[in-house]
Amino acid sequence: MPVSTSVYAPEELSEYLDIRRYATAEKILIDSDTREAYGVQYLRHGFPQLAYARKEIIISAGSFGSPTLLMKSGIGPQADLEAINIRVVANLPVGRNYRDHPILPLGVELLDTSQVYDYRLNLTASSMKEFLEQGIGPLTTVRGLSAQAFLASSKTVVAGFPDWSDIQIVFYFHDEKIFPDTRKIYCWVHLGRPTSIGSVKLDPNNINGPPLIDWNMLSHERDVDILLEGIEKALQVYENTTSFKLLGASYPDTPMYGCTEHQFRSKEYWKCYISNSVVSAGHSSGTCRMGNENDSNSVVNSKLK
Fold it and tell me: What is the Cα–Cα distance from 70 to 129, expressed in whole angstroms?
């Protein structure tokens, strides 16, 4: 039995499973009269291939690959498809509801680094034995991840949802990739439920190339305001709790380059900090939204059809 088959399916199912490595789906074949999908056009080792379906076709290519494949197959926003001469099979808002979690790092310095995770010191035979036998010690953390907080912003509380968090703060006790200096620790401030919506579209100059991804991150002022609250909450933990005071935690007094025209730690300074520091959490979703038939923003129903 091939390794690829034995890994992904039990032996009794192996005769029904054919895994094609080095293959990239290019287009879903759809009957123009019945609008039923009957096959997949794909490239393998650069050569066009066809696969035909006896029952149904499941598309599971991720938040970027799935909408790209659907739009190339004629399923997507009509105006966009017609503009690049793709025959429209179904006018649906494919790629129009792109969501992701904006996150930003916030680092502080410590006077006492005895509790800082450092793989050069902590990744030892004794710590491994301690972890495996007792489940304790420095290896109980992943890259120094030590705690998380889920909080509801003031806007969410006012809206009547005090138990529905929209801020997540992930505390780390060091990651050499972010802060090589072991005196520094940091956290990631996450915007849990962003209002800003992006999009994924085909590149009109090369529909077979990577799609055009517009994060449209923080385009809504509400998202910025909630991240400001997240920064405030994180600094309260670092600067006003007994545990961090004992470690001598303090936020560095050097302003970020590019934000020096603003008063340090003012609201405008933090807005500048956010715009220069925010990145994607890589939690992309929403480009093939599920909903009922009355939802004009949905692409598939509850049965993923």
Answer: 51
